[in-house]
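Annotators were shown the component list below and the corresponding predicted structure, then asked to write short factual statements about the assembly.
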Amino acid sequence: MIYSLCLLLILVGLYGVVASRQTVKIVISLLIMQHGVHLLLLLIGYRDGGSPPIMDSGQAATTFAGLSVDPLPQALVLTSIVIGLGVLALMVALCVRLYERYGTFDVTEIRRLRG
Amino acid sequence: MGVMEPFGVETRTLVPLFVAVPLAASLLIQLFTRDRHFWSGWLTNITMLALVLMSIQVIGGSALYHLGGWPSPIGIDLRLDSLATLMLLVINIVGLAVGLYSVDYMKRYTASGHFYGLFLLMVTGMNGVVLAADLFNLYVFLEVAAVASYSLVAFGCAHEELEASFKYIVLGSLSSALILVGIALVYGITGTLNMAQMAGRVAETGLDAPLLLAFGLFICGFSFKAALVPFHAWLPDAHPAAPAPVSAMLSGVLIKAIGIYVLARLAFNVFGAGDSELSLLRWLGVLSMVVGGLLAVGQTDIKRLFAYSSISQIGFIALGLGLGTQLGLVGALYHLVNHAVFKSLLFLNAGAVEYATGTRDLGRLGGLNRALPVTGVTSMIGSMSIAGLPPFNGFWSKLIIVLACVEAGHYGFAATAVLISIVTLGYQLKVQRMAFFAELPESISGAVRSMGREPRLMSLAMILLAAACIALSLLVLGGFRDPWLIGAAQQTLSAGPF
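Structure shown to annotators:
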């Protein structure tokens, strides 16, 4: 159920990328899509009623592994968010520069290159 | 331990340096020499030279390096094998030529320190992708290379460059998202990110439906990065928009290091793809070959023509990989190396033409052979190589791919490959005839005369790559089925899952 919601989020983002005419909206849609992927990654490591993946000092590794959620996807998502931030900054900078050059955010008017 | 150790350094200690050295140099340039064109250029070239020497040093070696000393399933591994060695050689040698070329070429741009910083960052990312032994780090390095290339495409900050870069970044992010979903799925199914372990788990269960879905996502994602038709829309805009050295690097190396290489690695070494899965790769290859080749013929912008030609040549490589036979893989890898050399050479030539005349429009060019002798001769060598005329390197690799098609019983593919080679010859002759022969038009003769010959380092870079074209054609002397270095890399792929 939650998995399909993730998929829905990804598809909403994809739809936004394809259907939007504004550069900024495309960027936002890409973000939505990215976060859908992040949620999917988190869900894969999640378990019902699992404890946070922080090991107590007295705990044996096996009992810890039996109780906690999988910490690896969380680390991956953190990394991915940082990468996403870098790409986002670059994309927004490009949008600003495009606006300076073309005077518009509309991709149908930003068309100097032929297919 | 390496077999050949000319400098007496152990292979294992070198492996992390392939990532660390360019990364450190990139930071140094950004911090200290950002406003000094001369020093940034030389620091870049010294770094690239060191990387080339290191890649020569690791020939024949193999190593598994545990970052921070953590053992395999927990820690992060870097893996060096014969395929990775081949890719490292290609990336760093082409990188060195491009670095040399940039010293003169980038004088026209402001903020060239940023250029060198980003360039080295891109090299870092590509070296990392080739060495990464687990999927997520591969993804991280891929993003490092990709982000650097997005900004390099926009480097000139003119209308077209910004537009091309925006298109590139949107499609690039989309494909990265697809790849990340694939990684999430594979992790969910196999419970590991380490490619060797993953290959073991996949071999146990076989390619069932969820794994096939993940594999499909990877094929889509990395076909975007490799610009296989129908995922190619960004390439003909992005590659011509970048400064010429960057175009050379993007078309020559980047699409192979983060596209084709990863596809091959995943298909053969991780998923152990069978013939039905590989047929997808074959068809993508044939489609790119035909569409890219036919679209290239109609182009009048010299760099745009070369960009379409890249799509077509990548198609040859994907076709060879998709055959999955020993001969097909040899042909694909051989063509990969060849294409890296001659396509970067051709883009550097196009850059020299633009440097001298200020235009890339074939209709306004002509008679450059006399004005730019080095560019004329080297571009002739590059054109003949890419068109597959004997005895140049492109002829041998295309011949091997065609023979592999015949051997595997795909006569239609073989005929298409031969036909597209002829088309390639056609559009390369068009470039030669319109740009280098005929008369020098009045409109550009003034600009050309005032510049004189090509600057010395630009000539050196082009001569280096042209010499590599000729040297590569001698590789087949070592044996048709087992050319030097390429044979070893092919065996790594054919060995199946790790």
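Statements collected:
1. The two ends of chain A are 41 Å apart (CA to CA).
2. The CA atoms of residues 29 and 54 of chain A lie 34 Å apart.
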